[in-house]
Structures are given as C-alpha cells and as structure tokens.
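Task card 7
Instruction: Convert sequence to structure tokens.
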Amino acid sequence: MLDEAERLFAVGGVEGVTTRQITEAAEQRNTSAVSYHFGSRQGLLRELLARRGGPVDQERGAQRSRAGAAPSLPTLVSCLVTPYAALLAEPTGRSYLRIVAQLRGRFAAWRVESDAATTEHLARILDEIEGRPTAPAAVRRERVVALIMLLTGSVAERARRIDDGTGNELTHDEFVQNLVDMCAAVVSA
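Output:
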C-alpha cells in the first residue's frame, strides 16, 4: 500500500489522490485499509516521508560528522543536498522527492511539528546554517526557507524530467554541485 500511495501521490498530487484510489491500486478490498493500517491519510503520508527521509537524514548526519568542527557554508549545504539528490537514482526515490516538493510550503510548520527521529540531522544542519551571523535573524530564517524551496523544487523538477524521459543537460554530479553553489549563494546573499 505504501508503494502505491507513494507512486500515486508523486504523479497525482498529495491532495489530488483519494484513499480509495490508493486502496484500489494496492488491490486492497477493504476501502478502510488506510485508516486501519495508518490511522488516517496524514498517518499514511507521515509513514511515506519517514521511510525515505529517515535514511537520508542518517546520511546527512554522517556527512556532517565527516565535515569536522568548522565546515564552510558550501560544505554544510552539501551535507543537505548530496544525500537528498542521491534519491534521484531510483524511481521510488524520485516519487519521494516529488512528494516532498508538494509539501515545501509547509516548511515553517514542519520545523516545529516534524518527526525528530527522521529529521534530527536536517534540523541540526539548518540551525547551524541559520546561526551564521551574516544577516539579521529574520533575514537568516527567510534565507533558510528559500534554501529549502530551491533544494526541494530543483530536485523534484529533475526527478520529473527523469521520469518523463525529457532529459537533463547536466550530469548528476554537475547538477549536485550547481545546486550546492546556488543554495549556498541564497544563504550568503
């Protein structure tokens, strides 16, 4: 059921897909299967985000640990971007990326309400980026939101182009480096 929900949400939109469509695609006879297994549609979405987001967050933490005590801004941004963009390699990862991009408008609430078990390192790195004294606190917060918007939107668009077979001009590594550079520029503007 999770695989079908992920696929349907990625293509049809988180708000556009019904629980009935999910249960039918998963060949579940019980139309209440989503409620039974996940408590609610939101519970299903949380589970989808956790199953891909947890491993990405662990890799972010590993990269941050390897970066040492005082990493540069581009290095910190790379700790966010590289594990996230690695999901482009698989169809299920691309579905996840497309779902996250649909939710990026909820970022401010996410930082308060998120599942700490799957976002611990993400939150820590974002706090570290936001804490750099290059601008007033309100400006730094806005820049971190802009970084997330740019990151999630750019990677989701690349995922869509891969899935649609419309191609990408940059190699994966070129794309990641360019995205790191752009996100670091947003924060340090």
